[in-house]
Specification:
15 strands, 5-stranded antiparallel sheet, alpha/beta, elongated, 7-stranded parallel sheet
Length: about 500
């Protein structure tokens, strides 16, 4: 029993150590001046939209993963007529192309709602791991514009084109999610060999010509997007296991399943495989097409990961490099029937927490098979919109200020030297406290403190450590927003 506890403790410690290394040390700064400029501008945007969408939405299942022969609960096959037979299931899954027909697809509506919510950039799934392309690629017929897909006859059939155009029209920057693994492509999962896990199903070192064909295919598809779809601001690459050498600690971090990778009998659920996609070459070619392009080769320790992307979690502290928490807003990454979405309070307070720590929030909304967003998504974005109308100046183009959070109060600062204090409503609260005490910051003598959304100067009292702000009854009874209230300090003592 003690030995079992020790093993669990060691595994947990290794996982936490690998995560700590990833967050604190595994970043290689960019050197391209134009990329650095764009990266700084991106950091000031703070809030973005991610969308996972594909044929899998018709079954309401996790994106792509049910065709991966790994033994995890979230990969479990739950739909289709024969989920107990892997080969038959894959055929039926890929046959979803023949029924995908999202006739209610209206990206202009999405873009307007995203803009109202304060989102400044977006990332759209051009292709997930299953290999189905949501754009008109010439390198595969497994795509939304293929004649066997009923939506191909629709004037909006080139979904990526329509999405990018709609969001650019709202002055929202565009990002292309692209999966480096392609489980449909014969040069990644060769039909001669059975797939064993998420990795390429043959040894690239033994079949270098076949692997080179796959590298060429991947580069061609990415360059196709960067050539035919206008200005692209971010290339967001997923599938971090497709990398040269596949360092074990990165794989563990990316998967988030360290203790589950190996069974008691030594059965390895998925392996680390050297599968070099030659990203250095690709990024050079990509930036010839799109100068200043931000590249995010997720979970790969290299110069091609311009910012890091903690997945479905918010770091506990500020991090010394550009980062973005990518978070599901409701259900999973892909469409889930009857998904339960974040409340306005949860969503707004998460945004504030992320920004106070110096990060960006990329919030995922999953379209339905008909091409619609669920009511819960619109309700959440409406809450963001109401709050951002009042408080956005404390969000955009701000930086962290130590200690970044004190109790339930988060902090940011802008270039003008103003400091913003975000009072996060506690459980059971529906308004800010009548007296707000902060010990870690000292306003300059005579400085003005106001609440965003109100012009009234607030009375404040200096203490030996910190200060107290008094919120008058008249303001408490007529607060300008919900969930989080922002106090603006004109200047503090440094």
């Amino acid at each position: 029993m003690k030995r079992g506890i020790l093993i669990i403790a060691v595994l947990f410690s290794v996982q936490m150590f690998s995560q700590a290394i990833y967050e604190d040390e595994r970043y290689i700064p960019e050197t391209d001046p134009l990329v650095l400029k764009n990266l700084e501008e991106w950091q000031g945007k703070k809030f973005g939209l991610l969308m996972h969408w594909g044929t899998y939405s018709q079954w309401g299942i996790v994106e792509s993963w049910s065709i991966c022969p790994e033994d995890y609960g979230w990969c479990e096959r739950k739909k289709g007529s024969n989920p107990g037979n892997y080969t038959e299931y894959v055929k039926e899954y890929e046959g979803l192309k023949k029924t995908f027909n999202p006739t209610k697809f209206d990206p202009a509506k999405w873009a307007k709602w995203a803009k109202a919510a304060g989102m400044k950039y977006m990332v759209f799934t051009t292709k997930h791991h299953d290999g189905f392309s949501m754009y008109d690629t010439k390198y595969s017929d497994y795509k939304v514009t293929d004649k066997d897909c009923p939506f191909s006859a629709n004037p909006k059939a080139d979904i990526l084109k329509e999405v990018f155009t709609a969001f650019r029209n709202e002055n929202i920057s565009t990002g292309a999610y692209f999966s480096k693994p392609d489980w449909h492509n014969e040069n990644y999962w060769d039909p001669y060999f059975p797939p064993f896990d998420r990795n390429v199903n043959y040894d690239p070192l033994l079949y270098p010509e076949k692997w080179q064909k796959y590298v060429d295919f991947t580069h061609n598809q990415i360059l196709e997007i960067l050539t035919n779809y206008g200005k692209v601001d971010i290339l967001w690459l997923d599938g971090g296991w497709v990398q040269k050498d596949s360092p074990q600690d990165i794989k563990e971090y990316y998967d988030g399943k360290f203790a589950e990778n190996t069974s008691k009998n030594g059965f390895i659920k998925h392996r680390a495989v050297d599968q070099d996609p030659k990203m250095d070459e690709l990024v050079v070619k990509a930036r010839q097409k799109q100068p200043g392009l931000i590249v995010v080769d997720r979970a790969v320790h290299s110069k091609n990961q311009n910012y890091l992307t903690p997945e479905n979690r918010v770091p506990e502290k500020t991090l010394p490099y550009p980062w973005e928490s990518c978070i599901t807003s409701g259900g999973g990454w892909s469409y889930t029937p009857d998904a339960k979405y974040m409340t306005g309070r949860e969503g707004i307070q998460m945004l504030v927490d992320v920004v106070a720590k110096g990060g960006n929030l990329l919030l995922n909304v999953a379209p339905s098979p008909e091409g619609e967003w669920q009511k819960g998504a619109y309700d959440l974005l409406a809450a963001y919109a109401d709050w951002m109308k009042v408080n956005s100046t404390a969000i955009y183009n701000t930086k962290p200020i130590a200690p970044f959070k004190e109790n339930n109060i988060c902090m940011t600062q802008n270039k003008a030297g103003n400091v913003f204090l975000f009072y996060l409503a506690k459980e059971g609260e529906n308004k800010i406290a009548s007296e707000v005490v902060v010990k870690s910051i000292n306003p300059k003598k005579g400085t003005k403190i106001t609440m965003l959304g109100s012009k009234k100067a607030l009375k404040w009292t200096k203490f030996a450590d910190g200060f107290k702000v008094t919120i008058p009854e008249s303001l408490l009874n007529n607060l300008p927003c919900k969930e989080v209230w922002t106090l603006k300090i004109e200047a503090i003592n440094r």
